[in-house]
Each structure stands twice: as structure tokens, then as C-alpha cells.
Amino acid sequence: MRFWAGLIAALAVVTAIIVVAERRDWIGGSDRTLVTHSTHAGPERTHAGMRWIAGGEFWMGTDDRASVENERPAHRVRVDGFWMDDHPVTNAAFRAFVDATGYVTTAERPPDWEEIRKQLPPGTPKPPDEVLVAGSAIFIPPRTPVPLADLSQWWQWTAGASWRHPEGPRSDLSGRDDHPVVHIAWDDAVAFAKWTGKRLPTEAEWEYAARGGLDRKRFAWGDEFTPAGRHMANTYQGEFPYHEQVEDGFRRTSPVKSFPANGYGLFDLAGNVWQWTADWYRPDTFRARAHEGLCENPPGPGSSFDPLDPHAPRRVIKGGSFLCHPSYCESYRPSARRGAPPDTGSSHVGFRLVTSS
Which residues are 158's β-sheet partners? Predict the structure, then answer.
């Protein structure tokens, strides 16, 4: 994945190649349409599989010192009511979309170097042509401990990896219809949303829903990670990233609804897969809001900026994934947030949708 600053900032040339290969030119509109057969009507508009989330006020973010700076400070936010999918979009649901529209995801399209270079530091060398092929990044656990500051130690750019082939071209979706779809770029999620007549949630809507009515709790279910010894989400146990103990029963993604719902009847808002939101990412968003008093239906900043990767725009992702571990990110907390390039997916990023109507 083109993710977070680690890969683009890595010193190794091979890491730069991985990063460059992941860039895509499907941001916003272009003459290459997102849905290649958009004349096909979407599914019937219903609220099946959704939960009504009544509007209200809550503390967004956190003041907990055991958090990342971009989550602080906690601030008051109000959101109007909305409907939200009770689980992330599954492989089966995404397949129905592709079958109906002929849509081709970002990971299935060869990247365009001329577009890629516009979003990279000046002077970044062009990688070999054999690297600029359709593909995505997958998690490959190293065999021994590695520096946690170097993401390239466990992420591998893989030609042929896509939502159809989550672990590379030799893998498929057999037995995984009810798993969350992955290798989905923000642009892919938006295309699916338009087809269904829904939209991506704002970051505020997502976090409000994830908290399930609880007030400033560390997790979506309370303050204890494994209450009474019970795993509440699909996360990483063991020594990250080289030795997983699989105490929760899943090494990679899990079927949706494998763990308890939160107080609003929503599943998989912690762990399993990261989830796209509509908001642009800035690490200082919450600090800027702290002086505004009550923020009503905040749409997020008007543009993206991340000083760790100033050349690449980013959208907010929430929820963490099956790879989150206390020694590394612990991002299965509702306040946790991260920025990811909108034209990039990976083997641990999916999405869910909302509607206000």
C-alpha cells in the first residue's frame, strides 16, 4: 500500500519502487470513467442491512495520553441522524456491483507514471516498466523481528493482487463471500456508493456510530480490551509482525459479524479492515476544531496535508484492522485515525456506507 509515510520515506531503492508502483491516477474525475458501464441501474434503494443511528452530541477524539497526537484533543461534535450499513461491504456485495457494471478497480488497472510523478517528491526516479503493472500491496509476515519503523519489512507490492485475489494471483475468494472486500481504493468505494445511492460516512459520523452510545470509552465496547477474556474484534495477537498467535481465531480477515455488535447494533467497527471515510486527512484537524465550541456535522477539512508525505493527498480511514497490535498501532479504538492516499488499496482496507435519506 502507498500508505503512510513509511514506504515513501524509506531509504531502500526497492521500497521507493514499491511505493511508486502503488500510485494511481484515479483521483477525482478523468476521461477514464470509474464505472465503465454506468448505464446499469443500481440495486433497489432500501435500508436492508442498515441501522438507524439517531443524531446527537458526543466527545470526538480523545485526551488519553496513550493515543496518537492526531487523535487529540477530545472536542464536542453533533451529528444529525443517518442510516449506516451494519457491517462492511462484503466480497459478495462488491461482486454484484462488478457483475452489473463492469467496473474495474484501481488495483486491476496499470498505473500511469506521468500521473504518478506529479504526486511524488521532485526527482523521484521512474521504476522499471515491469514494476508498473496492475497490482496491490499484501501483508507478508517476516520470519524474524524487524524494525517497526520500516513498513516495507512486511508489506509487499504484488502484481495481480486485487479484491478478487486478496493474497496475490494464486489466491481467490473461495469461502470468503461474507468477508469484507479489500484492495479497495477510495475511488472504488465512491463508485460503489454511487451505484447503491449511498455515500461514505464523514469521519464524525463514523466515530459517533463506532462509539455505540458510550461516552469517551477507549474501545467500542468499554475500557477493557478483552472483557472476561473474550476477544471483541479481529486484531493481531503475538509478536507483531513476525509471530501471530491467532488467539481470536483469524489470521487475516474474518467473516463480517464474527464478533459482538456495539451498542448501536453495528459490527466490525474495530479491527478486521480499515474503513474509508469521506474526509480529507490532516493530522491537525482536531486541534483546529478545539477552539470552535460545538462542531455541528463537521465535513472535515477542505483539503489534505500530511507533513510526513506532503506530495500525496490523503483521506481518513478508521477502525484499524486484523494487523493492529498494541506494540505498533492499536488503531481499533474509535478515536484512532490515519490518512491514506485515495487512489490506493491494500489487503486490509475496506469500507461501509451510510445514507441520510
Answer: 136
Pairing status of strand 274-280 against strand 349-350: parallel
- Could you tell me the CA-to-CA distances from 337 to 26, 229, 270 in Å, in that order? 23, 26, 12
State how far Cα 106 lies from the chain centre. Answer: 15
Q: Can you give the length of the chain in residues?
A: 357
Are 96 and 173 within 8 A, CB to CB?
A: no
Task: Please count the other Cβ atoms lying within 10 Å of the Cβ belonging to residue 247.
Answer: 13
Looking at residue 271, the DSSP 8-state letter turns out to be B
Q: Quick one: pLDDT at residue 285?
A: 98
Pairing of strands 75-79, 56-60: antiparallel
CA distance 185 to 111: 13
CA distance 209 to 54: 9
pTM (2 decimals)? Answer: 0.89
Burial class (CB in 10 A: 0-12, 13-18, 19+), 219: buried
The per-residue pLDDT for range 135-174, each reduced to its tens digit, is 999 999 999 999 999 999 999 999 999 999 999 999 999 9
Q: Are 163 and 91 in contact (CB under 8 A)?
A: yes
Show the beta-strand stretches assigned E in 130-218.
135-139, 155-159
